[in-house]
């Protein structure tokens, strides 16, 4: 009788652990898919820099592009609230011409993806 209870508890424990691993893996895959699909595409470098890995209870999604932060939060006068970006226009020289810019409007892709993954994670573990 005791062996049957012990075996049942071990099976239940393994099922719970497998469910948790599956939830972490599914959430990681979702975050990768969401952030990749929401990433603005010009050259494709940003989208291609989004990477993921899953190992047991740990999932990781990272963005390797050096300019992802500027796309997420904007620059100059268009920078989102709380930014320490300079709120003045600036000039730069390119292709033999001078250009003036006031910044770039934010194109959020990361935080909206995190919000979506968070909703999925909560619903998965509240079943």
Automatic annotation (TrEMBL):
Protein name as it appears in the record = HK97 family phage protein
InterPro entries assigned to the protein according to its UniProt record, in alphabetical order:
HK97-gp10_tail
Q: Name one Pfam family in it.
A: HK97-gp10_like
């Amino acid at each position: 009788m005791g062996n049957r209870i012990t075996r049942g508890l071990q099976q239940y424990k393994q099922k719970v652990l497998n469910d948790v691993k599956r939830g972490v893996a599914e959430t990681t895959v979702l975050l990768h898919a969401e952030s990749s699909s929401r990433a603005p595409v010009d050259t494709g470098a940003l989208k291609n820099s989004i990477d993921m890995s899953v190992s047991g209870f740990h999932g990781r999604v990272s963005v390797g592009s050096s300019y992802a932060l500027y796309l997420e939060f904007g620059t100059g006068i268009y920078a989102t609230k709380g930014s320490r970006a300079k709120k003045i226009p600036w000039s730069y020289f390119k292709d033999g011409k001078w250009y003036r810019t006031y910044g770039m409007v934010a194109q959020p892709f990361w935080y909206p993806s995190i919000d979506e993954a968070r909703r999925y994670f909560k619903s998965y573990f509240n079943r």
